[in-house]
Amino acid sequence: MTRNPANKTGTKQQLLQELVCLKADLDREREEKNHFQLERDSMLVLKGVLEKKLQEAEVKLSSICKEREEAEERHQVEISVYKQKLKQVLSRQQSSTASTCKPVQNQNLPVQETLALNHQVELMEQSNRYSRKLRDVEVKFDLKMRTLVEEQERRRAAALRQLKQQTRSYVASLKEEHSRALRGEEELRSVAQEELRELKEELQEAQQLNKELSAAQEKNRGLEEALEEARKRLQDLRRAEEEAADLRSSLKEAQEELGGLREENRLLLRGFCKVQQERDELLRRQEHSMADLQRRSALKEELLHRKLRALNRFLERKEAQLLVALSPPAGDPAESGTGEELKEDSEVQGQQVLD
Hints:
microtubule; Dynein regulatory complex subunit 4; cytoplasm
């Protein structure tokens, strides 16, 4: 079973176009893979920056909390110092008042009591004012610290939400691109398997052509044997002709002695002429048939040789293009081993076709 040259040419062009398309798809997939790797690296860098900022915010928040604790401690120390100073001032005032009023204590006892009461009232009012101021300062400080802590918490929560959202979107995009790359790889593998199947069919057809060529060569050998046999028969006929010529000469010499055998001689000559004509006709037919057989055998053999050479060149180009299209990226040992096995199988089958 053979194909037309036009069909072979069309099939070869289609295969070349498909191989070019496959190569373009492979380059596009590699470019997309590199693009997604760059995006992944940029996302990782962004993630590192956000984590660093988050750590800095946590450190800043811890420092603010520490400063708040230290400020509260200083505030408590200042309050205790202020209370101690207030006690000292009160004790000094009491002692000075007692020492001043002691000589006239008996004379100005009512005045002293009134002054003491007034002084106590003033001290109490002053103490109340200082207490209110301290409470106001504490309230303002607590409000300010609470506001700072809430602001830091809001910033930290917003940064965490943004980081989580970016991580989710990045993981989703990676999954989508990974699935798309897997689908593209499966499509390329199916197309390559289809091309390999077609190449196997072409190799089977080439083997069939080789078998037909072997049969034609066997038939040619049979024709050569028939030609040799015809040549032998021609030699036999020539020897018979020579013998007949000798017989004619001997008959002519024996005409005087064998006059009675002239009629028989004429009959023999007539039969011999008829046989000679049949022989000549047979020789002409044999020569014509041999020439026709040789011409057709030569044409068929030349046609088969041309087809075989064209098929060998086509298979070699096809094998080279297939090996180029199926060559894996650097650093992938599994696909590289598969490509080497395909190359060895293609070389073995191509050698079988050439044999």
